[in-house]
Amino acid sequence: MSSSNHGLGRRSVLAAGGLGASALGLAACGGSDDSSSGGSGGGASADFDERGPITFATGKDTTGVLKDFLDRWNKDHSDEKVTLVELPESADDQRSQFINNAQAKSDAYTVLGLDVVWTAEFAANQWVVELPKDKLPIDDMIPATVQTATYFDKLYAMPYATNGQLLFSRKDLLKDAGYDEPPATYDEMYEIIEKVTADDSGINGFGGQFAKYEGLTCQLTGVVKSAGGELFDKDGKPQADSDAAKLGLQTLRDGFDKKYIPKEALTYKEEESRQAFQDGKLVFLQNWPYVYDKFQADDGSSKVKDKVSVSLVPAVKGEGTSTVGGLNYAISAFAKNMGTALDFIAFMGAAEQQKAWFLQTGNPTAATAVYEDEDLKEKYPFLDTLKDSIDKGAVRPQVVKYGDVTQAIQEAAYGCLSGDTETDAALSDLQKQLTDLTEK
Amino acid sequence: MADPHSRRVTGGQGRMAYLLLLPTLVLLALVVGFPLVLSAWQSLTQSGGDIDPETGIIKQGDTFVGLDNYVEAFTGSGAGAGFWNAFWNTTLFTVVGVSIETVLGVSMALIMARAMRSTGIVRASILVPWAIPTVVSALMWQLIFDANGIFNRVIHYQVLWTTEGWQAKAAVLIADIWKTAPYIGLLTLAGLQTIDDQVYEAAKMDGADRWDTFWRITLPLVRPVLVVAVLFRLLDAMRMFDLPYVLLGRLESGQTLSMLASDAAGKTNYGLASAYSMILFAYICLVAFVFIRVLGADVIGEQNKPARRGGRRRGDGNDGADDGSGGSRRTARRLRTTAEGSMA
Amino acid sequence: MTSASGSASGGRTRSGGTQIRSRTGEVLSPKKIKGGRAGSIVIAIGMAFILVYCLLPFYWMAVSSLRLPSEGRSTELIPNPISLENYVAVFDPDNHFARALANSLVVAGGTTVLVLLLGTFGAYALARLDFAGKVLVMFMIVATSMFPVITLVVPLLKLFSGGFEWWPFNWINSYQAMLLPTMSFALPLAVWNLNAFFRQLPVELEQAAMVDGTTRFGAFWRIILPLAAPGVFTTAIITFIAAWNEFLIALTMVNQPAMQTANVAISKFTGSSQFDTPYGTKMAAGVIVTVPLIILVLVFQRRIIGGLAAGSVK
Lengths: 440, 344, 314
What we know:
- The complex is a heterotrimer of chains A (440), B (344) and C (314).
- By secondary structure, chain A is of the alpha/beta class.
- Chain A has helices at residues 6-9, 65-76, 91-103, 119-124, 143-148, 171-176, 186-199, 214-226, 243-257, 270-278, 291-295, 338-349, 351-361, 374-379, 383-391, 402-417, 423-438, and strands at residues 54-59, 82-87, 111-115, 150-151, 154-155, 158-163, 166-170, 204-207, 282-287, 308-311, 325-331.
- Chain A contains 17 helices and 11 strands.
- In chain A, helix 8 crosses helix 9 (243-257), helix 8 (214-226) crosses helix 16 and helix 16 (402-417) packs antiparallel against helix 17.
- Chain B has one domain (38-343): MetI-like fold.
- Chain B contains 14 helices and 2 strands, in the order αββααααααααααααα.
- By secondary structure, chain C is mainly α.
- The longest helix of chain C is centred in the C-terminal third of the chain and has 33 residues, at 279-311.
- The radius of gyration of chain C is 24 Å and the shape is flat.
- In chain C, 57% of the residues are buried.
């Protein structure tokens, strides 16, 4: 009779890909450019000579920048037109659309906009094809972003957008409390909060994304790395109950216990926490850089205009580490005209598009050069810090069963932060679950 | 099972009946029957094999695994908190939700049926909760139940609605009841409108008070329609998905069986997803079957007792009349007889 | 003219525009059991409660749609300033929202017409005809409403995209690919509902008509259907709204903007960033898809039901 975890254990879940020199069977998979990857089903070998009209499936862009890109491309490529297929706004819905179409082997989508955490799953299932590195501007991209697009040393996507979190501080309040610089560590931050909230009981301390969703995985991955650990080591083995992991999680738990982090932060996603900070209800906020424009809004919606300083996220010990987010472009294994698709994603990665996207949408792009760009530096004074955050960023586990893994991480972290379980118990339980998931 | 009682106007109706039902049955076979069979088969398979240790690629193809997926469904960690958490949530949302909806919906229908004026506006407004797409209304409730949202502002107390616990379940129930009570209200109202007013006249002449009239006349007469309305609400509530999904996301407190199926499908574990779907299907079948057996006799036309004249399927004569005194029971009988008389 | 249908003449329009006649042909007046003034007060309070119950959360949706997009989470009871920006954003040409509304109308309207047609046939057979296996058929029909839609979607996508050899059509991006699966959950509801409504009407009415020489169909069409009008109409509303609200099937079967329905279009609204749920535009879209629906229902309620009832008199 099956054991209770039979269904999960039947398939080896985790494949260590990407993280530096990949570990599992690394000898056998030297970075070859040929795309026949030996899978028995799904994507046959890709034909990058085939050309013609393609589609591009991604979430909607309300800024109109993407439309400009496509118009320009279509003007120059009248026989290889790209049609935009807009997907739902929700990332989960986008992913399930991709997967449903892959299951049906439909050629409706050619180029797919993939969240960085989907790479392993899409590659392992051969829903997307391996990409030739020499035909793409990979060397112009921040290495951390290329890593998110790599699986078993092979490139399956082209980095397009990236992201790193930053710490936003109320410099006016810090100044009143006698601090000139934003805190570099959690300890410092908690100390400042202690002081500021002693003077003003109407304000809360630190806010981040602690609701039970993907954002919580990002938070935990970041603090664990900052504490010197990793949820998965380089061999792909879970290390969730390491001392570093415990220190990282306990640091956040302390924040909740001592009310440096308000209880309502358990309901915070990006926007909830952004709103609380913007309404003047928080001293510190860890969030993605998009919030900065909102804080600086002129229309009266922001109570913190010109009162915000930006720095690296606080460190547990060592350096403050954010989790890398972003979007990569991949080519569906069931699509036609992959040659055009390859050219198109190279076009999207070109310097001109990379700069225009960042400048006009406020979403950081993957090309190294944009972080040296004067126009961008002028618009985003914290550009260097952001680059730093991305360079040092933690990459979420690159596993095929990411859905199971991230869920286990969220369960553990949420249980501990909401006070239902203690750090040690939460993490040893997590370790057990991750081991189950990765074991053969 | 043929209707034992004569509703027959002419003989030889079987062929005609099936002819009339054929389009319905063919359509349902195509869009539900076929996927269902496929799902049933899939629940016995496991898609995808092991990961190749050298390329990281999953071997494709389905393998037959017998009942493994079912074992996994009952014992596994299903979306975090496991099967039984979702089972009890589903049951709670269904039982509590549908009960309150029914009481509210019937009350609304009774009020609207009695009202003389401005029913147009009220009738329009009763459609509002039901007409707002669930995906939008779930977002609306997200705003309302925000930690710093209007609900907390009105009650002057910060309830963290979207954190684990009873409050999250309450939030789902409130949002669901709000949306669906009008549905029961609408159907009940339509049922009330097809009741002959002379029944009420008779009741009034008989000196029955309103409570009596409701329990002994109105409710039995409107019962077939109400039973169908509640039945379909049950089916819907047991499959509840988007509301807790949008409102609570991953919280255990809101996990339903449908969410387990979708979660497993989202993880491309289609065998397990199908197993969850089949289990849910069986559970709903069971509940629906019991419900129809107990309450739905008049709807499927089984209860006609040869002794009753007219062969009308309307409310079984004697239930609901037992709690009253002998006198009121007699009154009720008489009323019912009068009612039938007026319909003949 | 049959006695039954003859007796149906002279109905009086009641509050909601519905004409109701008693089964003996007398004109029905509004319910008489009112219990005097105390009763009217109770009713008035009840009506007020219904209004508040239904409209209070909707009010929140409406005011949320009238805020500046940057004030999406505000808890001001009245937006300040009142802004139509969200509505303008909904009809941004990129959203194809007007087209999406039209598509929703086609899908929901088509579903309603087909469901009512098939449902009436089926319900009539179940309510009025004697045949073997009736209970089984009824249970089979309702059982199709018991399967999670999520599980139906992938096989149907495969089917409609030509994934099975025995199915020769590629229906992706077509109305029928949305219509037929939507009917799968609307049809059982309609069959059962109509069955219940038909059963509420005494069979003697048709018998009388048929004795007079009317065909079975004629008796049904001219007598039962008009008398069951409130039920048929309510079933139509419920079917229409259920189809109008359908999301998952429409999302899966269509990938061209020109074919998407309003709900799918709404799901594609984005805020100013990927993390930003665009509450304002979604609430505005919610108002836009809800209000016309209500008006439509009100208009239909007066016209159609009136027409049906009048038609039965001829």
